[in-house]
């Protein structure tokens, strides 16, 4: 009968494995929830691509007039997922993005409202990427 009992080490190992599995499950659930929120379709009335075009002049100086950058160090944004563009621009505006161009993007996005960002995202998202 003594061989049927778990040792203290075995009990501890099982508890650690159980906690690890629970943490992984929580991480997967949170990742799925974030994906649903980030990539859920936006309502059609939330943004206006034509207004985005009118606001895109500042973007064109680095990202090109149709979102295809002539400079290799600046990303192409034509055809990018609009929700990603909105997310990125809001993070730049909040000073939460890092990288080589983060300072410039921070400065540029300070003048943009949430509506401006949504309109720009709609505009660049509808363009055809030239990769």
Can you give a write-up of this model?
This protein is mainly α. It has 2 domains: 2-39; 45-126, Cytochrome c-like domain (Cytochrome Bc1 Complex, Chain D, domain 2), CATH 1.10.760. 60% of the residues lie in helices and 0% in strands. It starts with 7 loop residues before the first helix and ends in a 5-residue tail after the last helix.
Give the DSSP E fraction (strand runs of 2 or more residues): under 5%
Catalogue the unreliable spans: none
The CATH class designation of the largest domain is Mainly Alpha
Architecture of the largest domain, according to CATH?
Orthogonal Bundle
DSSP strand tally: 0
Average pLDDT metric: 83
Instruction: Determine the fraction of residues in helical runs and give it as a percent range.
Output: 55-70%
Secondary structure class reads mainly alpha
Number of domains: 2
Order of helices and strands: HHHHHH
In the CATH hierarchy, the third-tier topology of the largest domain is known as Cytochrome Bc1 Complex, Chain D, domain 2
The N- and C-terminal alpha carbons lie at a distance of 69 Å
Radius of gyration: 23 Å
Main sheet, how many strands, which sense, barrel?
A: none
> Helix count?
6
CATH superfamily of the largest domain, by name, is Cytochrome c-like domain
Shape: elongated
What's the topology here?
Elements: H1 8-39, H2 49-55, H3 57-63, H4 82-93, H5 102-109, H6 114-126
Entry summary:
Helix content is 60%, strand content 0%. With 131 residues, the chain is mostly helical.
Structural key phrases:
single chain, 131 residues, mainly alpha, Cytochrome Bc1 Complex, Chain D, domain 2, 6 helices
């Amino acid at each position: 009968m003594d061989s049927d009992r778990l040792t203290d080490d075995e009990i501890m190992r099982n508890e650690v494995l159980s906690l690890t599995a629970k943490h992984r499950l929580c991480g997967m659930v949170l990742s799925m929830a974030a994906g649903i929120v980030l990539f859920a379709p936006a309502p059609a009335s939330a943004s206006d691509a034509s207004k985005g075009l009118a606001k895109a002049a500042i973007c064109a100086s680095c990202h090109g007039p149709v979102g295809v950058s002539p400079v290799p160090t600046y990303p192409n944004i034509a055809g990018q997922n609009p929700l990603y563009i909105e997310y990125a621009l809001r993070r730049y505006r909040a000073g939460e993005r890092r990288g080589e161009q983060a300072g410039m993007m921070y400065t540029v996005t300070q003048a943009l409202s949430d509506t401006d960002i949504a309109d720009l995202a709609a505009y660049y998202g509808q363009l055809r990427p030239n990769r």
